[in-house]
Amino acid sequence: MQMLVDSSNHAFSEVNEYVLKIKNMISASAASTYIIQDDCIVNEWYSGYHDESEGSRKVDAESRFNVASVRKTYLGFAVSLAFYEGRIKSLDDHVTDYLDDLDELILKDTKIRHLLTHTHGLQGRANHIRRVFSPETDWEYNNTGVNLLIKIVHKVFGQTLAEIMEERMFLPYGFTETGWIKGKSEKLVWLNENYMDDQGNDANLFVSTRELAYWGYIHLTKGKVNGIQLVPSYIFEQVSAIATPSNLNETLPRHGFFWWIQDKSRPLSELGDQLPKNAYQSLGLYGNTVLVIPEYNVVAVRMLNQTERNPPQYDYIEDIKTFGNIVCKCILSQ
């Protein structure tokens, strides 16, 4: 990716100061931010070390963080690609149309749409799934729908999620600092994890700050980079459009293909109320975030490696809303 760098732009210093404050509050050892505006890198900031041990590597542009639940947006891309190629026919297809090793009584009426938007009402995994509410009557954020979709993607493509992403996204767009990794290495901000595979089935997607921003940027431009459309724009339009059932309770969040979508301020949404309509975002367990704001032609990323329990004064929903609101404030104050 060729992109201008505006090193004279200090408009987003308040964002960096805020992320540093949160880093200290939650006892993270590493933090970074990266902001793209109007096809120009306007903010790039790194702080701290990969961990608290003596001689630990200093955080820099090559440091790769575990993005945890942000990985869901990569799965969302693969699902959208499956739609585009006719491998999955409809958002309202039933999950049991694609997977035949499930309890049909429990999975009854559960659709692809429900898995993508956390409105499926299922809990558990493998052969131990149970139902806690009927589809599209409520919302609960968990990984049950994620795991089912990973299985569906594997089945309809005949490839693992990691293989699909490497072939259809990472290689064409030149990603070199993004991938599922099992073992510790020098450039990984490692959290003493233990993973079984590197095929996309687990929450071990490691990404550099700049490549997470690039991921958001490709969504912002709907796949066109340096004037070249490598992946059809429809795929990105679909993942960032609201897929949540329209009859869901008004207080509950709205999602695209796992992205949180801003349509209006909602109490349980992680999107700040100052963000404009159609902004969309993904947040991971350790504090890592990618925020896309089409109205302002902006992508904002922050990285953290939170490992401790949240201190009493910390509210992660208020934190991520505040991050988005400060990004918005800095854009408008230029």
Main traits of this protein?
334 residues, alpha+beta, Beta-lactamase, seven-stranded mixed beta sheet, four-stranded mixed beta sheet, 9 helices, globular
Instruction: List low-confidence stretches.
Output: none
**Structural Rg:** 19 Å
What class would the helix/strand composition place it in?
alpha+beta
- Please name the fourth-level CATH homologous superfamily of the domain at 61-293: DD-peptidase/beta-lactamase superfamily
Strand order of the largest sheet: 1-3-2-15-14-13-12
Average pLDDT reading? 95
Question: Topology, pairings included?
Answer:
Elements: E1 4-5, H1 13-25, E2 30-37, E3 40-48, E4 64-66, H2 71-84, H3 104-107, H4 112-116, E5 122-123, E6 130-131, H5 144-157, H6 161-173, E7 178-180, E8 188-189, E9 205-208, H7 209-220, E10 224-225, E11 228-229, H8 233-239, E12 260-261, E13 280-283, E14 289-293, E15 298-304, H9 316-332
Parallel strand pairs: 1-3, 4-8
Antiparallel strand pairs: 2-3, 2-15, 4-9, 5-6, 7-9, 10-11, 12-13, 13-14, 14-15
Helix pairs in contact: 1-9, 2-5, 2-8
Summary of the model, kept short:
By secondary structure, the chain is an alpha+beta fold. Helix content is 30%, strand content 17%.
